Amino acid sequence: MKRKHPLRRVMIGIAATATGVVLLLALKQPGTTVAEASAGSQVPPGGSASAGDGASATGGQTVLGDAAGTQYGDVQVQLTLSGGRITGAQAVKAPDADANSRQIAAGAIPKLNQAVLAAQSADIDTVSGASYTSKGYITSLQSAIDKAGAAAPGAGTSGGTGSGEAAPPPAADPGAGADAEAGTDPGADADADADAGTGDAAPKTVLGDVADTQYGPVQVEITVSGGRITAADAVKAPNSDANSRRIAADAVPELNQAAVTAQSAGIDTVSGASYTSKGYITSLQSAIDKAGL
Question: pTM for this structure?
């Protein structure tokens, strides 16, 4: 019995040693797996960051114009510019006083957006039947162009620098001054006159005096560009009762169109709206006088 006891202890020792070796081998595999997983998890974040930087670098500059109040609600235009040119235009606010205002704006704004891209300036026509929306749009559009430093965006085609928005204004002023100093005065004067003509093309608005009528006051505002009337609108119109408002709503668009066509206050009155027409013509003449046309 005494001889079997040491042998048993030897067998237990061998079994314990074998178990320890197995455990050590098992511990190596989890360590290797964690290391490989850690290395693999570092790849996707780096790739995502690169893709994000590339996407942001391709975006254009956006400029938000001032909100322009109209009789039926505010209009606010946002521009997208790239390389000194207007590549996108949209109204982030549009008249929404009632269902009719929303319907008119929905029909007019896409046309105005398209006109901006074609003209590359605020020198665009009003949309027929949407004079208030058009006027507010043009006012906000001009403020956005001014903020972008692109009062004459079309010049962006010749200024191909990366910061094309800042380049157009200096191109006009220093160029004329440098030519004058160089002694080529006639050419410089001609260039200066041409530049001045381009500057005049940027629309300016002139508000006529209020003309009182039997049914309410009329006040006309005109938009002038390049020495011409490009738009006219009544910011005040007779509204003493529903009938007066209806007559004015029908007559004013015709008077606006007549003023732009005639380029003067020598326009006919609208049949059935003599009081509104007379007040309109009086205020229109005062606006023309103020504009020096």
Answer: 0.37
Cα gap 184→188, rounded to integer Å: 6
DSSP-derived secondary structure letter, 151: S
Rounded Cα distance, 251 and 257, in Å: 10
Closest to 259 (Cα-Cα) out of 230, 279, 238 = 230
pLDDT tens digits, residue range 133-183? 999 999 999 999 999 884 434 433 333 333 333 344 444 444 444 343 344
Q: Find tokens 């006529």 and name the residue.
A: 208
Find out whether 257 and 151 touch, Cβ atoms under 8 Å.
Answer: no
> Which residues lie below 8 Å from residue 257, measured CB to CB, with a gap of 6+?
128
CA distance 21 to 100: 87
pLDDT bucket at 1, cuts 50 / 70 / 90: very low
- What's CA 82's distance to the chain center, in Å? 12
Residues in CB range of 185: below 8 A, 6 or more apart: 179
Give one DSSP letter per residue of 234-292, joined into a string: EEE---SSHHHHHHHHHHHHHHHHHHHHHTSS--PPPTT-HHHHHHHHHHHHHHHHHHT
SS3 content of the chain, % helix, strand, coil (to 5): 55, 15, 25
Question: Comparing C-alpha atoms, which of 198, 143, 200 is closest to residue 175?
Answer: 198
Instruction: Tell which residue, 215, 234, 220, 233, has the closest CA to residue 283.
Output: 220
d(CA 154, CA 156): 5
Number of Cβ atoms within 10 Å of the Cβ of 82? 15
Question: How far is the first Cα of the chain from the last one, in angstroms, to the nearest whole number?
Answer: 134
Please, are residues 161 and 85 in contact by the beta-carbon 8 Å criterion? no
**Residue count (the chain):** 293
Q: What does the block give as tokens for 202? A: 């940027």
